[in-house]
Design brief:
6-stranded antiparallel β-barrel
């Protein structure tokens, strides 16, 4: 079992702008072929969470070593069916670990994996 501990987050650490949305059919402007593209619905600031070496080794056993953890301020709009686009790369949401403590400013850890079937729009 992977042990996840909530780390102290300062809102200043949320320094990356992530777009969240779905996929839709688009056209390749060069060939005219239909392909899946990212369809942005909204944006939120997030932080990339660094894992310890122990967590990285544990994730290898679960075939999740190629995932990335993003930290968002708690937002019920962020759901597992959405895609995340960060720095031009589209990711699938694998899991959402909500902060269910009674903190005044809760944060959620969203685990994502790179999507290889969706191109960027544009």
């Amino acid at each position: 079992m992977i042990q996840v501990t909530m780390m102290a987050i300062n809102f200043i650490q949320l320094n990356k702008r992530a777009d969240l949305g779905t996929s839709k059919d688009g056209r390749n402007p060069n060939t005219g072929n239909i392909l899946k593209v990212f369809n942005k619905q909204f944006s939120r600031f997030c932080a990339v969470r660094t894992r310890t070496m122990n967590q990285t080794y544990q994730l290898t056993n679960f075939n999740m070593q190629d995932t990335v953890d993003l930290v968002f301020r708690h937002d019920p709009l962020i759901q597992s069916l959405l895609k995340v686009q960060l720095d031009g790369i589209v990711y699938d949401i694998i899991s959402i670990s909500p902060d269910e403590s009674f903190n005044l400013d809760p944060y959620d850890i969203v685990t994502v994996r790179k999507n290889t079937q969706i191109g960027s729009a544009g």
